[in-house]
Design goal:
Elements lengths: L5 H9 L9 H8 L3 E5 L4 E3 L7 E7 L2 E4 L5 E5 L4 E2 L2 H5 L6 E4 L3 E7 H10 L1 H13 L14
Antiparallel strand pairs: 1-8, 2-7, 3-6, 3-8, 4-5, 4-7
Amino acid sequence: MKKQTLIDKAFLLKRTTLFNALDLDLLLAIADKLGMVQFDPGEVIFPINQDAHRMYFIAKGTVLLKDAQQQVLARLSVGDYFGDEALFNEKPRGYEAVSEGDSLLLTLSKSHMAMILAEFPPVAMSFLQVYASQIPYRTRRDQEPLP
């Protein structure tokens, strides 16, 4: 498998909804913090209920996300990312990730994510925009109920 250069990693990040609005200098700084890992077909990337310590960006291959009954929740491919939600909510992973074929994933650890968010406020805003766009309405349980 071809080794990913820093510029390859930056351009992959540019393809994601999380980072597509960022400029190349910022993407290169983030890409420098990414790890790389390869998976064989059928190999489990992480199981359900695992504590989350990193998120993943697909550089090559396809990844299946499965529930506890092994039902496919999503089939992700190059440019997609997963595992990010557990980094922020401190809960164990609610699904399993399995490599469907030979896969190359870029990884971003929880500590590197925290460092990036602190050093680069535009990244934090990008995360907030992506997550807010996925929630049409958030209930506010601390408010009094309607009559």
